[in-house]
């Protein structure tokens, strides 16, 4: 069981680290889309109807696919008022409880995301905007990001349990 946990953590952490490093450049994609929107409105006096929605789609990918990287690095928001003074084991106990809640939340979110993606594919769902893009691509990215976040949360739980037990992974 120990070898499986060690292997799982290693693989998930490596994949999410690489995805996170790639998604860091998603911010430049988002800026390019919004810059084009500004330039087209100012210079050509023709608003690009697709830019705002495409920027939202890019932000979904940036946030959801890059989120596991943030959790992995421990750069998520914590209430450091008490947390900073706790021992490593006490932090692991609290983190393991909160990660369990996160896993439940992500499971519910993934279930809803899969249902929504199936609906979008079956009924060829389109956005209500003037551009009217299909919704399934962004919903697939959303489900992928939630899945990667769920895998990273399980990895964090395994690391917390190892810390509580005094085992090094």
Automatic annotation (TrEMBL):
The cellular location(s) given in this protein's UniProt record come to:
Cell inner membrane
Q: Which residues cross the membrane?
A: 22-44, 50-71, 92-114, 134-155
Q: Which UniProt keywords apply?
A: Cell inner membrane, Cell membrane, Membrane, Transmembrane, Transmembrane helix, Transport
Topology in the lipid bilayer is annotated as: Multi-pass membrane protein
Q: Which domain of life is it from?
A: Bacteria
Q: Where is the Tripartite ATP-independent periplasmic transporters DctQ component domain?
A: 30-162
Q: Where is the signal peptide?
A: none
UniProt xrefs under Pfam families: DctQ (PF04290)
- Family, per entry: Belongs to the TRAP transporter small permease family.
Q: What does this protein do?
A: Part of the tripartite ATP-independent periplasmic (TRAP) transport system.
Q: Share what the entry says about its subunit structure, partners included.
A: The complex comprises the extracytoplasmic solute receptor protein and the two transmembrane proteins.
What is the name of the protein in this document? TRAP transporter small permease protein
* Native species: Sneathiella chinensis
């Amino acid at each position: 069981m120990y070898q499986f946990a060690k292997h799982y953590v290693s693989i998930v952490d490596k994949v999410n680290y690489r995805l996170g490093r790639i998604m860091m450049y998603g911010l430049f994609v988002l800026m390019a889309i919004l810059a084009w929107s500004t330039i087209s409105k100012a210079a050509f006096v023709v608003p690009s109807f697709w830019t705002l929605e495409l920027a939202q789609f890019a932000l979904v990918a940036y946030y959801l696919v890059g989120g596991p990287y943030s959790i992995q690095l421990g750069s998520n928001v914590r209430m450091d008022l008490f947390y900073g003074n706790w021992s490593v084991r006490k932090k692991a106990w609290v983190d393991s409880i909160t990660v369990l809640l996160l896993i439940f939340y992500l499971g519910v979110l993934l279930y809803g995301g899969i249902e929504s993606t199936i609906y979008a594919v079956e009924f060829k769902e389109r956005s209500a905007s003037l551009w009217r893009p299909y919704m399934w691509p962004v919903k697939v990215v959303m489900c992928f990001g939630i899945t990667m976040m769920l895998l990273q949360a399980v990895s964090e739980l395994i690391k917390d349990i190892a810390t509580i037990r005094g085992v090094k992974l």
